[in-house]
Amino acid sequence: MKKEIGEWLVAILIAVVLIVLIRSFLFVSYTVDGLSMDPTFEDEDRVVVNKLMDNFGEYETGDVVVFNSEAGPAYVKRIIGTPGDTVTMEDKQIYVNDEPLEEDYVVHRTDSYMDNFTLQDLGVEGETIPEGQYLVLGDNRPLSRDSRDFGTVDESQIIGEVQLRFWPFNRIAVNFD
Questions:
Q1: Active site residue 147
Q2: CA distances from 36 to 19, 32, 44, 149 (A)
Q3: Coil, helix or strand for 72?
Q4: Which residue ranges make up each domain of the chain?
Q5: Any bridge partners for residue 153, and if so which?
Q6: Candidates 36, 51, 144, 147; catalytic one
Q7: Does 151 score more than 90 pLDDT?
Q8: Is 77 annotated as catalytic?
């Protein structure tokens, strides 16, 4: 009996250690709060965030990331500009390095509270996004608090890239570019 209890305790301990390691270094889940990423994500959607990207990859325009906010809980937003990019918005059209950005995921194009901006309007010094900084926007531009409000996001704030929506079950999806 003692041997069996010991085996169970070892199995439980190994499971707990694996869970802690996976959550700390590989993947973590988050719940989307609000409609700022609609229609890509809805309020209360649950997503899996790949934390490996933070250590081994570079984020690209179009990646959906979760990052820590100084204003409260973590945000889910889309990367629009990466280090070295120039980004402007004119008449609801984003331009990255003077090329229009095709954004099929943006369906709410009316009544945006900030239709035009330059990097300087967002508090960036210089003509391009600085090294280690990212410009992020929500897909639902009229409702989103994003770089238009708080400027660029430091790479150290980014938790990882959203890889999977697993809830609700009828909307399971991957690849949010």
A1: no
A2: 30, 9, 12, 13
A3: strand
A4: 28-174
A5: 134
A6: 36
A7: no
A8: yes
